[in-house]
Amino acid sequence: LVIVLASPFLGPAGLAPFGIVLKVSLLVGFAVQVAHQVALPDLAEAYERNDAAKIARSLWQATAFPTVITTLALIAAMFGGESFLLLFGPEYVSAHGALLILLVAQLLRAAAGPSQSLLMLTGDQATNAAICVACTALRLMANAALVPIWGIHGASIAVLLTVAVWFGASARML
Questions:
Q1: Tens of pLDDT, residues 36-90
Q2: How far apart are CA 141 and CA 81, in angstroms?
């Protein structure tokens, strides 16, 4: 969806580097998703039993590991990201800043914890869906505003902005 919403504004020359850095950041995001999914059964059980201590422990476990992994990936990208992107060609090195922005978005997601899953556990599926729809519209508007000015960096900022609003809204609703 990120690529689809950015493609009308990026054009083919910007879409390839953006696609690469997005996919790299999503590989890091996979660790975040796995940690959140592994914690979900314990969270559901603790919520069912109204066990605040177990909820806190499960949330800590779901947040600490992906936050550490994402922080390490961000540090690695700061120092080795340009060399890594050079593997795809010299024109991809310019996407280094976009990669860092997307990894910051993943770090925010990791630190925010499994808020969408918690909304589902509390029975707030409609709220979760509304937040997702609103954030999709926000991403489209942010792309329209930021990509013409900053190219792939604008598309990456649109992702970061959307992630911040998404998790902020989820936290507010929780």
A1: 888 888 888 888 898 889 888 888 988 999 999 999 999 999 999 999 999 999 9
A2: 29
Phi, psi of 57 (to 5 degrees): -65, -45
Asked whether the beta carbons of 134 and 149 are under 8 A apart, the reply is: no
114 by DSSP, 3-state: which?
A: coil
CA angle 8, 146, 116 (to 5 degrees): 85
Whether the full predicted model's pTM is greater than 0.90, yes or no, is yes
pLDDT digits (tens, 9 = 90+) for 97-123: 999 999 999 999 999 989 888 888 888
- Alpha-helical runs (H) found in 50-151: 52-86, 96-112, 115-121, 125-150
**Contact at 8 Å (CB) between 104 and 160?**
yes
DSSP state of 123: T
Assigned token pair, 62: 């779901």
Tokens of 51: 């066990």
The size of the chain, in residues, is 174
